[in-house]
Specification:
Blueprint: H1 4-12, H2 16-22, H3 33-38, E1 49-57, E2 71-78, E3 81-87, E4 94-100, E5 106-111, E6 115-121, E7 126-133, H4 134-159, H5 170-182, H6 188-199, H7 202-214
Antiparallel strand pairs: 1-2, 2-3, 3-4, 5-6, 6-7
Helix pairs in contact: 1-2, 5-6
Amino acid sequence: MENFDKYAEYTQSENWGEICKLNGVELDSFGTKKELRVLSEYLEDDEVVFALTSGIMEQSETSNALDFGSNTWLVVLTSDRFLFLDHAMLTRSVDTQSIRHEHVQSVSASQGFMFGKIMIDLGSRMLVIDNAHKSTVKVIANLANKWLKELSDKKSQATQPVSAISQTPLFDKLERLEKLYSLGALTKEEFQYAKQRLLTSEDFEVEKAKFLSSLP
């Protein structure tokens, strides 16, 4: 994720406004000032906030009893999940919901004249956040889809079998081995065994000689 370190820095300092500025939008705190004040209490260790907005979600059975009609929720996109917070008006009670990224198929957004809508596709159902500030909905959808793709690519790399590198040049094989090991896809013993086989092969000696002879 581009600017990941900045997102992490602003999350650590609870500077939600700077996170929004990083995304080119203003902080949408309409109806969610209480939620913003307690947001950090509901973040997990090393969880990084990418984007925030507020929107209307249908009242569920677990919603605050003193809220009337549809509730305005704080909607937070993080490195681990979508997090939703709804602070009661007259008590300190806070409703929370979260959706882990592995359960999300895709995220889309639509913009109206004044407000926008975020649609989170969970495969079996669609979660809709309505009446969000229109400038924030596409930001959240774009960031979410980009991050979901990065997570999917990392997972694919981690599960790719070592045999898949058998057709690449030997130096490339070493780099791929290092990457698989760093991702946790290989044990230390598997990594050392595969690396030793490459370094002691005749083909590697030939390729190493070619490389050295190409140096000025």
